Amino acid sequence: MENEGERRLRSVVSYVKRGGRMTVGQQRAWDELWPGLGRTVGELPAGKLDFTAWFGREAPVMVEIGSGMGETTSQLAAAAPELNYVAVEVYDPGLGQLMLRAEKLGVENLRLLHGDAIVLLTEHVEPDSLHGVRLFFPDPWPKKKHHKRRIVSPSFAALVASRLAPGGTFHMATDWENYAEQMLEVCSAEPALRNRYDGWAPRPEWRPVTKFEQRADVEGRVSHDLIFEKRS
Fold it and tell me: Which residues bind substrate (predicted)?
């Protein structure tokens, strides 16, 4: 449940609180692994979250918004042990599955947050502190009347930019052409950000192919990556 502060911050949210029964494994992950790996955004103490204390070490912090079922997130965290990797997601079974995948891979540099990423960034992340923010295949809200629910907006781009350290990156990917164009337009208009490329970024070899990309390819949609960085 969202608390009063979350509702005040967000009159229109970019996600739907989906239900879904958890598997036995996912429930075990919540029972056994969540206490050590996860926190709920709405239950965090007021003020900024001390990532150094939570991870037990000082390291660059990477925030991934919308980790889904954790298929790629677990691999990305495993491939970058030098990062303190934070996954933010609202879908309970997805977080459960991510914990199972991370456990299988022996990932130790991953922490999970259950709740609204905008509330997290606004209330609990220090300005100029993040190494990077990743947003891979967010809900496209394809119907025009729902475009206002897309997470990438001028206010969101400004918020992300304010939380990035100078030189920090904001990496987005989507397989919906008009959403990609919106992302490009919105982030190009944010004064604190600059595009690392002339338009679309080349698809990084290190980013695993997601089920969304596979489906997009079958349906004839082209995936686009965008990588912006915070100006020094």
Answer: 143, 175, 210-213
Q: What is the token pair recorded at 31?
A: 């029972």
> Which segments in the chain show pLDDT lower than 50?
1-10, 15-16
Give the per-residue pLDDT at 17. Answer: 55
Is position 137 annotated in a ligand binding site? no
Taking phi over 0 as left and psi of -120 to 50 as alpha, with beta for the rest, 70 belongs to left
Residue pair 160/133 in contact by the 8 Å Cβ criterion: yes
Any known ligand binding at 143?
yes
Type of residue at 23: T
Residue whose entry in the numeric block shows the structure tokens 């709405």: 42
In the numeric block, which tokens belong to residue 64? 């991934």
Residue 198 among known ligand-binding residues: no
Domain boundaries, the chain: 52-230
N-to-C CA span, the chain = 38
CATH no. of 52-230: 3.40.50.150
Reported pTM:
0.90
Other residues' Cβ atoms within 10 Å of the Cβ of residue 155: 11
